[in-house]
UniProtKB/TrEMBL annotation:
GO biological process: gamma-aminobutyric acid catabolic process
Aldehyde dehydrogenase domain residues: 23-483
Keywords: Oxidoreductase
Identification of the protein by name: Succinate-semialdehyde dehydrogenase [NADP(+)] GabD
Amino acid sequence: MAITTRALLDAGAVVPMLIGGEWVPSFASNLREVTNPVDDRVIAQIAYGGVSEAQSAADQATAAFESWSNTSSRYRADILWRTYELILERADEIGALLSLETGKLLSEGIGETRFSAEYFRWFSEEIRRPQGEVFASEDRSRKQLSISRPIGVAATLTPWNFPLSIQARKVAPALAAGCTVVARPSEKAPLAVGELFRALVDAGLPPGVANLIYGPASIQSNALIDHDGIGVISFTGSTPVGSALMRQASNRIVRCALELGGDAPYIIFSDANIDRAIEGLAIAKFRNNGQSCIAANRVFVEDSIMDQVCERLAKLTSSMRIGDPLGHERVDLGPLIDSSRVRDVDRICRDALDSGASFLGESPIVPDGANFMRPGFLVDAAFDSALAKEEVFGPIAGVFSFSDEDEVIHRANDTKMGLAGYAYTNNQSRIWRLAEKLEVGILGLNHPLPSVVYSPMGGLKGSGLGREGAHDGLLEYLETKYISIGIEEK
């Protein structure tokens, strides 16, 4: 029977790193506690490394690259498919780990696990399709074509909010392309990611092809970027950190694939189906306790339905139950990841109140509530307030009225970010205008869940570079070689 992270937790053992095919506790025997955000109870200890672990993992991935990149696409596809099957088989246990370490609802944890598995299935199929092109030559004495080759070792650096699915949508295409991997997930939520790598090992992945390390983000990221074997940095996180990684990567001209911060507008027009719009907003705002890069951040409501929508939103939030996602009672919202996140969301709320905003319902702060916050909407915040300009990353959003389409498009685009956006309207011509004019890389029109594995996901402006998912996501780990062949005519 394979050793699982759950078995390690039950035995009180340290959760190890994976380097060169070996599960290692840590070169320096450093440990880091992982806590449950419901009550800050310690649930695990992970091996916590530094520069030496990052360098060793990169060394192992570099050594494994030649053999892995020369395997057949069928061989790589079979391993990815088996990984997909194993993740599905273990979805309930992995989903519970996700809920335990992040505070997300159990249904969301299991759903994220199943969604993560789909990346391995999809890319196992995609890599067996043609990769390259034969050009229609204008010169009979030459034939021209392009082929693709894996770029090298991929460093996958990911956050805590969707720790499993974000790693999966990087690791699956990287391995499919023939790259080897060094993954560094957030130490706040490392447990489910460990299970992903156990599935890869159990699926028969050769030693050194995929490596998993834990340690200080800046120290290990810097060590990886400076390693000669690293060919691409795939990072999901804040815009300032992504910008800093780009600057360092420029020293070696290392490719960067970046999914960064969001400030998503959610627009409700008067001709929309209001019931669907409110139901969609509940998902787009409160999924993962509001801690999503594509979460609705600024809600724009047309003047004529403002009172009606605000009344509905107040009822929505007052009916939502908060509590332990793994407790005995059903809840709608779990805790934020930690107290620092609570403080930052509270700061944004207080700034909005100081600017003249008011809450629809109760204050979001729960007295003696550990890391819990009530869901809420603030109305009439100033346009230059933090609520209108910053990514909230919590169960709070601002509600702003607008009078016409041009106005709301201008205000929706008035941000340095451009990751996701949403709009509800039954005007088909308007749908196309919004699709063209809203400055976002991901747009949900009359739908709150745009993410699917076979679509290209990524942002505009300060929200990143490159795309993940779909064929575009595979291209992030490939480079194109152009070939021109001279032909002698008889």
